[in-house]
Write a structure and sequence with these properties.
Elements (H helix, E strand, L loop, with lengths): L5 H8 L3 H11 L13 H7 L1 E2 L2 E2 L17
Antiparallel strand pairs: 1-2
Length: 71
């Protein structure tokens, strides 16, 4: 079975162990084996998250909220 460990992800992403571990937990990704091998896709998921959330796309504009009380 092929997979990647948290230590390998830390080296590739140049992030501390606790950061990678926390992002994996927030994303709800479970290891493939008891030796804590994670799917290779985990690396892409962790790379594209900030505090467990996907990065914002700067090209997408958010809708403005209507002002209450004015018509």
């Amino acid at each position: 079975m092929e997979g990647i460990t948290i230590n390998e992800m830390c080296e590739k992403l140049e992030l501390p162990f606790k950061t990678v571990e926390g992002r994996i937990q927030r994303a709800g990704i479970k290891p493939l084996t008891k030796q804590a091998l994670y799917p290779r896709e985990t690396l892409d998921i962790i790379k594209n998250t900030i505090m467990g959330r996907p990065k914002k796309n700067p090209t997408v504009k958010r809708a403005s909220k209507p002002i209450k009380g004015k018509k």
